[in-house]
Design goal:
Layout (H helix, E strand, L loop, with lengths): L1 E5 L6 H16 L4 E5 L6 H5 L4 E3 L11 H21 L4 E4 L5 H7 L7 E5 L3 H7 L4 H7 L3 E4 L2 H10 L7 E3 L18 H7 L6 E6 L8 H15 L4 E6 L6 H12 L6 E5 L4 H5 L4 E4 L8 H8 L4 E4 L5 H4 L5 E4 L4 H13 L1 H15 L4 H15 L1
């Protein structure tokens, strides 16, 4: 039996990848497994359909919010989980992120098996989550590592002294949840709802609204297009992020101050990403630091060429010059220039679109899950 440890059941990348991999595991192998998740989230029910789930930091409903009561409950809950773990005989612990050091540190005395950690973080995120030393604990207590890109592997080896022979590389993959039709037609209803014409050039992006993902750079690219090129038939759409957050309000404020409000829409979290992918002409990966970028594969699935920054981590490993364009780090003017180049060269746009569709086929769960399972089985 394998014990999978995830940090939460949110709709973000790492929890989704773990869920899809374990779904494939259940459908295609006889491997038994269980989960410990650091926190709950909207994907919890989906996890529970696959195997037993223990929530490490579970917060009770309909009880006093006094901190001491919640802390006491959490402590009792963790004790219960450890009791359950003592009864099990695990062959392997698969830790899905380096942020789970606290959980690993607490359960390791009660298990006797190898620990493999899948690393989907680069240095700024590692620094952020290592304030209490939990990342260090995770790295210290792991026997092997699965990096999701060469950039992640390099960071582990050079900055954290992990021996190269202990690091495997297995990239992220796309699930079967997004299924673009063979003939993708732009949805006129969306254009009407956005009050734009069907001939408008649609520039898309997807991610949480945080500095690392570069939504502010996304806005700057648009500003360059409007100011430098006086372009009018363009519209920018950002999918994902908390529209109740302070950073969202800052972004909206800046959009209005730049006078760009009629050219851009921040959609926020949505379960209907497919309908937006279908209308994107170009996809901007504006992340300052990205370990791989699953959204790039999703965009590629829909034949959307990608522009990204060099020195941003994993994206340039996927965005080779046959499927997109890599521009200098954080150079929003260069990114705007390349959008104009693609807009005026329909043949190039179509060629990149065709190539990225084919390339994305190599990053499906059917191709990548067996590769990941093979690595895991070799460690048991």
């Amino acid at each position: 039996m394998i014990l999978f440890i995830g940090h939460e059941a949110s709709m973000t990348g790492a929890p989704r990848i773990l869920l899809e991999f374990c779904r494939w595991l259940k459908e295609n192998t006889s491997q038994q497994f269980e989960f410990i998740l650091g926190r709950s989230g909207p994907l919890l029910d989906d996890y529970m359909k696959l195997a037993p789930v223990y929530i490490w930091n579970e917060i009770p409903q309909n009880v006093s919010v006094l901190k001491r009561v919640i802390n006491r409950f959490r402590s009792d809950n963790k004790t219960k989980i450890i009791r359950q773990i003592k009864k099990r005989k695990y062959e392997l612990v698969f830790n899905n992120t380096v942020t789970n050091g606290e959980i690993l540190n607490n359960i390791l005395p009660y298990i006797n098996c190898p620990v493999v950690t899948r690393v989907s973080e680069l240095e700024s995120v590692i620094y952020l989550y290592n304030r209490k030393g939990w990342v260090d604990e995770c790295l210290k207590n792991s026997d092997r590592f699965i990096a999701i890109s060469s950039a992640v592997a390099k960071n582990l080896i050079l900055n954290h002294n992990i021996p190269e022979e202990k690091v495997f590389i297995s990239s992220d993959f796309i699930s079967n949840s997004l299924k673009p039709s063979k003939i993708i037609e732009k949805d006129q209803q969306i254009f009407q709802s956005l009050n734009i014409s069907k001939n408008t050039l649609i520039i898309g992006a997807c991610g949480t609204l945080i500095w690392r993902k570069g939504p502010d750079l996304f806005i700057r690219v648009l500003k360059t297009l409007v100011d430098k090129y006086k372009i009018d038939d363009v519209f920018f759409i950002w999918l994902g992020g908390d529209t109740n957050s302070y950073f969202y309000q800052e972004l909206i404020d800046e959009i209005y101050k730049f006078g760009l409000d009629r050219y851009i829409k921040i959609i926020g979290e949505t379960t209907y990403v497919e309908k937006y992918y279908k209308i994107f002409d170009v996809f901007l990966m504006t992340s300052r630091e990205e370990p791989f970028g699953t959204v790039n594969i999703e965009a590629g699935q829909f034949g959307i060429p990608i522009l990204c920054f060099e020195k941003s981590g994993g994206p340039p490993e996927f965005v080779t010059d046959d499927v997109g364009i890599v521009v200098p780090y954080a150079d929003t003017e260069a990114m705007a220039d390349k959008i104009i180049e693609l807009k005026s060269n329909v043949k190039l746009l179509e060629k990149l679109s065709e190539n990225i569709k084919k390339k994305s086929e190599n990053y499906t769960i059917e191709k990548k899950a067996p590769e990941l399972f093979k690595i895991i089985k070799a460690l048991i």
